[in-house]
Specification:
Layout lengths: L14 H7 L2 H4 L3 H17 L5 H20 L10 H13 L12 H36 L5 E6 L2 E7 H26 L1 E2 L15 H7 L4 E2 L3 H6 L2 H27 L7 E2 L18 H24 L13 H24 L2 E2 L1 H9 L5 H10 L4 H18 L8 H7 L7 H4 L2 H6 L9 H17 L1
Parallel strand pairs: 3-4
Antiparallel strand pairs: 1-2, 5-6
The chain binds arginine.
Length: about 450
C-alpha cells in the first residue's frame, strides 16, 4: 500500500498493522463528499493565489474524472489507508505533479470532519424525507379512522376508550418531534471546519468562508482545535436516531400485541410477515420484532461514541476513526426500519369490530360515570368511590355498567337519571373529550390538520 506520509519512515508497516489502521472499507462510502470538498478546496487555493490557475484546473478536472469513474464503476476504491489518501494518490497518478499540491493548507483532520459533516447533512435530509412520508401515512390512516373505537390503556389495563386516529396521531406527534429535532440538528451541524488544518489553523492566506459557501455550509467553525476534535455531531446523529428507533420500537411492541390472537386488533399483510418452519398456522410479526431488536444496536452505537470521546484528549486521535462505522450502520438500520414500518402499516388491516368490542369491555366508561355524578353535584372523590363500588358489583355479575337497569343504578346514588345511559355510551365518552389534544373526532381532526401544515414547514 502506497503511503503519502512515509518520508520519515525507513521500514514498511506490518501487514496486520496496515489492515488494522485502514478505514477504507468503511469510509469509501464518503468518496463523493471527499472529492467535492477537494474540488472546493482547490478552487479556493487558486482564488487566493496559493496555487497557479492551470494547476488548479488540472486538479479540479482530475477530481471530476475520478468521481465520474467511481460513479460508473470503472474505478475501484482500494489499496489505500483511507478515502482521502485514495483520492489524492489516484489524482497524482492521473495528473502528476499538480496533484501533490492539493493537500496544501489542509490536513486530513479537517478534511475528514468536512466530508463527514457533508455526508451527515445529506443523511439528515434523507431521514427527514422518510419521517415525513411516515407521518403522512399515519395521518392518512388517522383521517379515515376518526370514529374507529378502541381501548386506551394505562399499565396495559384498559383505561378509557379512544379512537384509532387518536392512537396513531400520538405516534405522529412523536415523529413530528423527531422531525423538528433533525431540523435543529441540521442548523447546528451546518458549520464548515475546512481550513482548520491539523489542529491550529494554517499559515496560508486561505479564504475559509469561500470554501464553506461553495460546499453549502452556512458558517465556519471558530476554533481549529475544537473543529478537528469535535464529534458532538456524531453523538447527536446517534442520539436522534436512537430517539426515532425508540419511537418505532414502542410502536413495534404495540403492533406485535395487536396482531396476537389475544388482541386481534390488526391483520398484518402477508407481504410483511413470516411463517414458522414447524408450526403451519403461524404468521409472525417479524418486521416489528426486528425493528424492536435493532433498536438496541442503535443505542449501542450511541454508547460506543460517547465512550470513545470520554477521556479523549484534544485534538485528533485515531480513536475517532471508529465514528464512521457507527454512523453508517445506524443510518442503514434507521432508514430500513422507517421504510419497512411505513409500508407495513399501509398494508395493515384494522379489525374495527374487535377493537370496538374491546373498547366496550373492561369498564372503560367508569370515569365518565363518575364525571356524571360530579356534574350532578357530588364531590369527585365521592363519585369515584360510588363508581368503584358499582364496578365491583358489575364485575361480580359480569355485566357492563350500561346494561344495568335504572332502578339498580339508583341504588348507588339517587342523583342518577335516565340520561346516564347517553352519558356513558361509547360514542359520547369519546365524543365529549373534545378539548384540544383530546380523543374526540373533532379534536383529532384539528390535530391532524395542524400536523399536516407543520410538517410542510420542516
Ligand atoms: N481515516 C482517518 C479518520 O477517519 C482520517 C484522519 C486521519 N488523520 C490522522 N491524523 N491520522 O479519522
Amino acid at each position: 500500500m502506497e503511503k503519502l506520509w512515509n518520508g520519515r519512515f525507513s521500514s514498511e508497516t506490518d501487514k496486520l498493522a496496515d489492515i488494522f489502521n485502514s478505514s477504507l472499507p468503511v469510509d469509501k462510502k464518503m468518496y463523493r463528499q471527499d472529492i467535492t470538498a477537494s474540488i472546493a478546496h482547490a478552487s479556493m487555493l487558486v482564488k487566493c493565489d496559493i496555487i497557479p490557475k492551470e494547476e488548479g484546473d488540472k486538479i479540479i478536472n482530475g477530481l471530476k474524472d475520478i468521481l465520474q469513474d467511481i460513479d460508473k464503476g470503472i474505478l475501484k476504491i482500494d489499496n489505500a489507508e483511507d478515502i482521502h489518501m485514495f483520492v489524492e494518490s489516484e489524482l497524482t497518478r492521473r495528473i502528476g505533479e499538480a496533484g501533490k499540491k492539493l493537500h496544501t493548507a489542509r490536513s486530513r483532520n479537517d478534511q475528514v470532519v468536512t466530508d463527514f459533516k457533508m455526508y451527515i447533512k445529506d443523511s439528515i435530509l434523507e431521514i427527514k424525507r422518510e419521517l415525513k412520508s411516515f407521518i403522512n401515512t399515519l395521518l392518512s390512516i388517522s383521517s379515515k379512522n376518526l370514529y374507529t373505537y378502541m381501548p386506551g390503556f394505562t399499565h396495559l389495563q384498559k383505561a378509557q376508550p379512544i379512537t384509532l386516529a387518536f392512537h396513531l396521531c400520538a405516534y405522529a406527534e412523536m415523529f413530528y418531534r423527531d422531525l423538528m429535532r433533525y431540523d435543529c440538528f441540521y442548523k447546528q451541524i451546518n458549520v464548515c471546519p475546512l481550513g482548520s488544518g491539523a489542529l491550529a489553523g494554517t499559515t496560508y492566506p486561505i479564504d475559509r468562508r469561500y470554501t464553506a459557501s461553495l460546499l453549502g455550509f452556512a458558517d465556519i467553525t471558530m476554533n481549529a482545535m475544537d473543529a478537528v476534535s469535535d464529534r458532538d455531531y456524531v453523538c447527536e446523529y446517534l442520539f436522534n436516531a436512537s430517539m426515532v428507533m425508540m419511537h418505532l420500537s414502542r410502536f413495534s411492541e404495540e403492533i406485535i400485541m395487536w396482531a396476537s390472537d389475544e388482541y386481534k386488533f390488526i391483520e398484518l399483510s402477508d407481504s410483511f410477515s413470516t411463517g414458522s418452519s414447524i408450526m403451519p398456522q403461524k404468521k409472525n410479526p417479524d418486521m416489528a420484532e426486528l425493528v424492536r431488536g435493532k433498536t438496541s444496536r442503535v443505542y449501542g452505537n450511541l454508547m460506543a461514541m460517547l465512550a470513545i470521546l470520554k477521556g479523549l484528549p484534544l485534538a485528533y486521535n485515531k480513536d475517532l476513526q471508529e465514528d464512521k462505522d457507527l454512523v453508517f450502520q445506524t443510518e442503514s438500520v434507521l432508514l430500513q426500519s422507517l421504510t419497512i414500518f411505513n409500508k407495513m402499516l399501509q398494508k395493515t388491516v384494522f379489525n374495527k369490530k374487535n377493537m370496538k368490542k374491546s373498547a366496550m369491555n373492561g369498564y372503560t366508561n367508569a370515569t365518565d360515570f363518575a364525571d356524571y355524578l360530579t356534574k350532578k353535584g357530588l364531590p369527585f372523590r365521592e363519585a369515584h368511590n360510588i363508581t368503584g363500588k358499582l364496578v365491583s358489583y358489575c364485575v361480580n355479575r359480569r355485566k357492563p355498567i350500561e346494561k344495568l337497569p335504572l332502578n339498580i343504578l339508583k341504588e348507588f346514588s339517587n342523583v342518577i337519571e335516565e340520561d346516564i345511559y347517553s352519558n356513558i355510551s361509547l360514542k359520547s365518552v369519546v365524543g365529549k373529550r373534545d378539548v384540544d389534544g383530546g380523543t374526540a373526532p373533532s379534536a383529532v381532526k384539528k390535530s391532524i390538520s395542524r400536523l399536516k401544515k407543520a410538517i410542510i414547514k420542516c
